[in-house]
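Protocol step 4 of 6: structure prediction from sequence.
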Amino acid sequence: MLLYFTHEMVWGGPGRPFDLHPNAYAFTKRPFHETVSSVYATLIPNTGVFHGFDYMQELDALGTKPYHLFLKVAQKLPAERLYLLLGSLNVKYVNSFRALLGGAATPIGSFPEYPAWLYRINRVIPRTHVVSRMIVEEDPLRALDRLSSAEFDPLTEVVLEQALPLSANKDFNSQAKLLRYTNHHVTIQASSLNGPGILVLADTFYPGWRAYVDGKEGKILRANLFFRGVLLAPGNHRVVFRYEPASFRYGLIVTLASLLSLLIFFVKGRLAGRRSKSG
């Protein structure tokens, strides 16, 4: 398969979801081989890795409060606004158990025997990009309302929890390219910025991540409620995100201290042995 997607949602209709979840799927008394076949055919999350394209990461992070708020809001949105919200959150494909209403999602495949229908969201932000405009919104519910609004342009603006020294630039230019992507390390080349901007990475805002801009640590911003962002100055930058939780650092310190203690114990034992032989 040549399809690429980052997130996938299961949606029921018509007109409104009945079970919106990134890794839920239901079958009714079907043989195992048909279940497996339908999972691959309809691109259920995490199976994509076997086909060489991206898949949903960090499912444990989805237990956080923002995600529960997302479900609360998304379940009540009309189809058009739901599509806009999903596109703003880097969701490119939607699985549904029924045929969906038309509009901002294009049908690309159907498997009525399972049953399942596959749709592509028409307006989707890339995995990483740079914007020059910000909207400050501290309340998560109002942030989700913004993200699902037709007036919100996720390609040029971002919703933040706090104001930054950033002025809108209607002639803003920038490029962002993923150079390396793993579960614990992301490297991005941001270039040709003709003014200050905010680099948005459509990966989960989650404790333990640290950001380095041109080798210097920078502050990670909560972007669009769910994602990670970093403020950049004009010019070219190499941005690195590393997953370095405090528990890892503490564990490393304990490990090094234990190794040092063993080394000291070993050296003392060798010295004591030599003294006994010389005596």
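Step 5 (inspection) to follow. Confidence is low (pLDDT under 50) at residues 1-18, 23-27, 43-63.
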